[in-house]
Automatic annotation (TrEMBL):
This is Protoporphyrinogen oxidase. GO terms for cellular component: mitochondrial inner membrane. Gene3D superfamilies: FAD/NAD(P)-binding domain. One of its GO terms (molecular function) is oxygen-dependent protoporphyrinogen oxidase activity. Residues 23-44 have a biased composition (Basic residues). Residues 147-325 form the Amine oxidase domain. PANTHER family: PROTOPORPHYRINOGEN OXIDASE.
Length: 448
C-alpha cells in the first residue's frame, strides 16, 4: 500500500535527514524528543584507558558567515601528523608512530609489532560457523593479545566509548571483516600485495558512492585539510537540516512533542498519541528513536525483537581552556586565538567505566590529565570549564548485531506490520555522522 501520510519519530540527524533527503516530498516529522545522539555529543574515553587525539593548530580568522570556526590546518601541521596514546599502568602518553624510521625507537612498537608479526604469517583461522565476534577477539585471533588489549581498547573507547571485548567487529568495523575475506586471512599481506586492478576497483567504488551526493565545492574546500571544527559544534549540521526541513510546505514539525503511545488503527494504519497534539493517524512510520525508547511504544499485540539487546554508553565531556600554548605536546590540544595564548582541551570520561560521585570534579580531572601527560608540575588553573553530561548517548552493537537487525527487518516486513514501518538510526546502522545520514537518506525506497 503506498503511503498516504508518514510520521517520522525522532529529532536528531537521522530523523531530519529522512525529512530532508529520504522522504522530502511527503513526510510529516513528529519529534518524540529533540535528542537522538545529540549533535554535541562526542565519543568518550575512560579515565584509565585514553586515546588522546590532537584537535587543531593555529587558527586564522574564519570567513564572514562561515559555519567553520577556523581556517583548517593543513596535513603538514603537528595537529595532523601527531596522534597520542596512553597505555594503562604507565604515566604519560606515546606518540603513535607512522611508517617511518622513527617507528624503530617508538615505545609503542613493543605493543604494535607482535600483532603485525602474527598477522603477516597467520593464514585463515576464522572458526567455521563464526559470523561475528568482538573487536578484541578479532584482533587477538588475527594478531596478538597485547596488541588487541592496547590498540583495541583505544579504538573501542575512542569511537564507541565501548568495551572492545563487547563491541561487534562486523557492525563497528565491517572493513576489517571484508579485508580478512579478501586476503584469505592475511589482512596486512593483502593490503601490501593487492594488484593495480584491485586498487582501481576500490577507487571506482569510492567514486561511485561519492557521486550519489551533491558535494558542491566541499571536496575542493577540504583538499589537504586534516582537522576542522564548526563555530557552533556539530550541532551546526543538525540545525541546518532542521531549517531545511521546516521550509518544506509538505512537512509539519512538532519539536519538543513526546510520543506517548502507538497502536494499530484499522482505517488509517497507525494511531500515535502525543503529549501535546491530537492523535496522529499515519499510514506509515519511520522511527529514528533510540531502540530502547521505541521498545516502550510498541504494542504488545505486535512485538518486535532485539530492541533492548544492545547497551548504550554514557559520556561526560569536559571542556577546559588553559592559559598558554606550550603546556601540551606538539599538536595536542586546540590552540585558540594565538595572540591571546590560550589552549582548549576536551576530556572524555565514562563509557564502559561507570563514573562515581566526584570523578568529574575539577581537581580529579586535572590530576588524571597531569598523570596522562606525565607532568611533574600541576597544570595551571583553567580559565574556562564546561561540563556536558550525555546519558546513554552511544549505542554499543554487541556481536551478532547485523543478524539481529536482519531479523528485526523481517519482523517489520511480516504479518501485522506489513513493511509499513522502518526503524533506522544510530542503534541500527552505526553511530557515525555518515551512518546516521545514510540511514535517513535511504528511507522509503521500497514504498511505492
Amino acid at each position: 500500500m503506498p503511503p498516504r501520510h508518514i510520521a517520522i519519530l525522532g529529532g536528531g540527524l537521522t530523523a531530519k535527514t529522512t525529512g530532508r533527503l529520504g522522504l522530502q516530498h511527503r513526510t510529516r516529522p513528529a519529534s518524540r524528543r529533540p535528542r537522538l545522539c545529540s549533535p554535541r555529543r562526542r565519543p568518550a574515553h575512560s579515565p584509565t584507558v585514553v586515546k588522546l587525539r590532537p584537535r587543531a593548530g593555529v587558527l586564522d580568522p574564519p570567513p564572514p558567515g562561515s559555519p567553520i570556526r577556523s581556517s583548517p590546518p593543513p596535513k603538514s601541521s603537528p595537529a595532523a601528523k601527531n596522534r597520542y596514546l596512553h597505555v594503562p599502568g604507565t604515566p604519560g602518553i606515546y606518540k603513535i608512530p607512522g611508517p617511518r624510521l622513527s617507528y624503530l625507537w617508538s615505545e609503542l612498537r613493543f605493543f604494535i609489532q607482535p600483532g603485525i608479526n602474527f598477522e603477516l604469517v597467520r593464514g585463515w583461522n576464522r572458526p567455521e560457523g563464526v559470523l561475528d565476534e568482538s573487536l578484541e577477539s578479532f584482533l587477538t585471533r588475527r594478531g596478538h593479545a597485547i596488541t588487541a588489549r592496547v590498540l583495541g581498547s583505544a579504538i573501542g573507547h575512542g569511537i564507541y566509548a565501548a568495551d572492545a571485548r563487547l563491541l561487534s567487529v562486523r557492525a563497528a568495523f565491517p572493513k576489517l571483516w571484508e579485508l580478512e575475506e579478501k586476503g584469505k586471512g592475511r589482512i596486512l599481506w593483502y593490503l601490501l600485495t593487492r594488484g593495480k586492478k584491485a586498487r582501481e576497483e576500490e577507487k571506482q567504488k569510492a567514486d561511485e558512492e561519492q557521486r550519489q551526493y551533491q558535494l558542491g565545492d566541499v571536496p575542493k574546500l577540504m583538499d589537504g585539510v586534516s582537522v576542522y571544527s564548526f563555530r557552533d559544534g556539530m550541532g551546526t549540521l543538525a540545525d541546518a537540516l532542521g531549517r531545511a526541513v521546516a521550509k518544506n510546505p509538505n512537512i509539519r514539525m512538532l519539536p519538543g512533542t513526546e510520543v506517548t503511545g502507538l497502536r494499530f488503527d484499522d482505517e488509517h494504519g497507525f494511531e500515535i498519541s502525543t503529549d501535546r497534539t491530537n492523535p496522529l493517524l499515519p499510514s506509515h512510520i519511520v522511527s529514528a528513536l533510540p531502540l530502547p525508547a521505541l521498545a516502550k511504544l510498541i504494542p504488545d499485540s505486535h512485538p518486535l525483537p532485539y530492541l533492548t539487546t544492545n547497551p548504550a554508553s554514557s559520556v561526560t565531556a569536559i571542556n577546559l581552556v588553559f592559559p598558554g600554548t606550550k603546556i601540551f605536546p606538539r599538536g595536542f590540544g586546540d590552540t585558540l586565538a594565538p595572540g591571546e595564548g590560550i589552549t582548549k582541551v576536551t576530556v572524555m570520561m565514562g563509557g564502559p567505566h561507570r563514573l562515581r560521585e566526584g570523578d568529574t570534579a575539577l581537581p580529579v580531572v586535572l590530576a588524571h590529565l597531569q598523570y596522562h601527560l606525565n607532568r611533574r608540575a600541576p597544570l595551571p588553573t583553567p580559565l574556562v570549564t564546561r561540563t556536558w553530561q550525555h546519558k546513554e548517548c552511544i549505542p554499543t552493537p554487541l556481536p551478532g548485531h547485523l543478524e539481529r537487525m536482519k531479523k528485526l527487518k523481517e519482523a517489520l516486513d511480516g504479518q501485522g506490520w506489513e513493511g509499513r514501518m522502518e526503524v533506522v538510526g544510530a542503534g541500527v546502522r552505526g553511530v557515525s555522522l555518515g551512518d546516521c545520514v545514510e540511514s535517513g537518506r535511504g528511507v522509503g525506497s521500497r514504498w511505492a
